[in-house]
Amino acid sequence: xxxxxxxxxxxxxxxxxxxxxxxxxxxxxxxxxxxxxxxxxxxxxxxxxxxxxxxxxxxxxxxxxxxxxxxxxxxxxxxxxxxxxxxxxxxxxxxxxx
Amino acid sequence: xxxxxxxxxxxxxxxxxxxxxxxxxxxxxxxxxxxxxxxxxxxxxxxxxxxxxxxxxxxxxxxxxxxxxxxxxxxxxxxxxxxxxxxxxxxxxxxxxx
Lengths: 98, 98
Description:
Radius of gyration of chain A: 14 Å
Mean pLDDT of chain A: 97
Strand order of the largest sheet of chain A: 2-3-1-4
Number of strands of chain A: 4
Strand content of chain A: 25-35%
Oligomer: homodimer
Order of helices and strands of chain A: EHEEHHE
Largest interface: A-B, 28 and 28 residues
CATH class of chain A: Alpha Beta
Number of helices of chain A: 3
Largest sheet of chain A: 4 strands, antiparallel
Low-confidence stretches of chain A: none
């Protein structure tokens, strides 16, 4: 299991629109092979900031299966114009015993 | 429900020691009032980098109940010397419909 982590900074004042678009976009990611679960959460300390956490079976399910798909083009069209700067996406894996 | 997020950068070469200390420290946080669950995960792309995610019932359970406790002193003694730089901790909350 791999956790994708992306901290999302949204252009000032566009958070409500972003949340609306994300509600549509989440059905895209949820339908992908290897997708397990996701959470989008809003930062308490900073306005227009979110964290997206997605659990995937493997890193390839995210980086190849999803990012090279036609579905990703729809995801991108719905969401990418809200981000500033463009987010750094990282992957995290289990630590034994933790 | 509040999600505490901390990206932890560990001093070069000390990751194995940090993981061992965290295994001890996690019993401290797990026993606190308002604690719900936690995950420590290791970054795939960058060495000596982790993410700690802790679910709390309220932000006060973390910031007051935990951070002002005697248990926090033990947590600090076990973990804080591994971090460089010292982590920024943020809190995230539910987005309706996401």
